[in-house]
Specification:
By secondary structure, the protein is an alpha+beta fold. It has helices at about 30-35, 55-85, 110-115, 135-150, 155-165, 170-180, 220-225, 245-250, 260-265, 275-295, and strands at about 5, 10-15, 20-25, 40-45, 50-55, 95, 100, 120-125, 130, 185-190, 200, 205-215, 235-240, 270. The strands form three sheets. The chain has a five-stranded antiparallel β-sheet with strand order 1-2-3-5-4, covered by helices on one side. The protein has a five-stranded antiparallel β-sheet with strand order 10-13-12-11-14. It has a four-stranded antiparallel β-sheet with strand order 6-7-9-8, with no helix packed on it. α3 (about 110-115) packs antiparallel against α4.
């Protein structure tokens, strides 16, 4: 059975065996009813979804969603409309239609805040976020941060910040650091070179080393951009890297213990489970944003 989606609701086959992968935005009452119906369901942190075992799991989950969610939505939306009428959100970034429509300049903060609102979804056709009235309480709680971030992202506000930042102390250093990161190179000890094509943790986050060039890292560059390397007695050489995919991070075997001081000094080590969890969440979010941008044709995804 093919994957079935509705905004943030999804049912798909479990690739690891008979069963279903089911996800829907968090709602305490819905989760309680779901667990009563599917006592064998288990939450999977890496998938951010519920895993239900069994050959008929997809059919049973689809029936539950068809039966449970529409009626719950109708009542919750009516309560949300009443709440909004009593205490409306007044803002130039918000208008009311069948749902609450939020349209702002692009801001990563806005995207993160709205993604945390249950049932909120991005409409690429009108380039706006749609929030059903059932989510008004969460939207109202997050609105101050959303509106403030939108105001900061207005073109004139961005221009003023750029102008104000130029003479600020550290501006040139920050610019140089950004240029260095774009080169996708990383210093490693010549005598302790990292393995290629494996997920490693580093002071720059998770990396997959593609090649060790053998080119010596200038001492000035190492001191300016990689201060952790100051205690390294060996010569440093450049390694070229890329970010690992979410699938690679999931398949990486974690270290049992945090990195030793010697590993921190050489600059690379086997990641721990906690480090992998953080990296997986970031990679999953990035890959979803890229996929949405690809489906929408490139420029209308807010996470770009």
């Amino acid at each position: 059975m093919a994957a079935r989606e509705h905004n943030d609701v999804e049912i798909r086959e479990d690739g690891e065996g008979p069963g279903a992968i089911v996800s829907f935005p968090f709602d305490a009452a819905a989760v309680e009813r779901f667990r009563d119906t599917f006592p064998r369901a288990r939450w999977n942190d890496d998938l951010a979804a519920w895993r239900i075992p069994g050959k008929t799991a997809i059919l049973r989950a689809a029936r539950w969603l068809d039966r449970e969610l529409p009626s719950a939505f109708s009542l919750a939306d009516q309560r949300g409309r009443d709440s909004f009428s009593f205490e409306p959100i007044v803002s130039p970034y918000l208008k009311v239609a069948d749902e609450i429509v939020v349209r702002t300049p692009y801001s990563r903060t806005v995207v993160e805040e709205l993604r945390a609102v249950p049932w909120a979804w991005w409409n690429g056709d009108d380039k706006a976020w749609h929030v059903p009235f059932r989510s008004i309480d969460e939207l109202r709680k997050r609105w101050p941060a959303i509106e403030a971030a939108a105001e900061r992202s207005e073109p004139e506000a961005r221009k003023q910040r750029r102008q104000a930042a130029k003479p600020a102390p550290g501006y040139e250093d920050a610019k140089a650091a950004m240029t260095e990161r774009r080169r996708r190179r990383y210093p490693v000890p010549a005598s302790e070179q990292p393995p290629l094509d494996r997920v490693l943790m580093s002071h720059e986050g998770p990396l997959v080393i593609l090649e060790v060039t053998g080119e010596v890292v200038p001492a000035e560059t190492a001191a300016r951009h990689y201060p952790w390397s100051s205690g390294q007695p060996d010569d440093l050489v450049w390694a070229l890297w890329r970010r690992p995919t979410h699938d690679e991070l999931v398949k990486t075997w974690p270290a049992r213990h945090p990195a030793a001081v010697s590993a921190l000094l050489r600059g690379w080590w086997q990641p721990t489970l906690e480090e992998l969890r953080i990296a997986r969440r970031a990679a999953r979010s990035l890959e979803r944003a890229r996929e949405t941008r690809r489906r929408r044709g490139g420029s209308d995804d807010p996470a770009g």
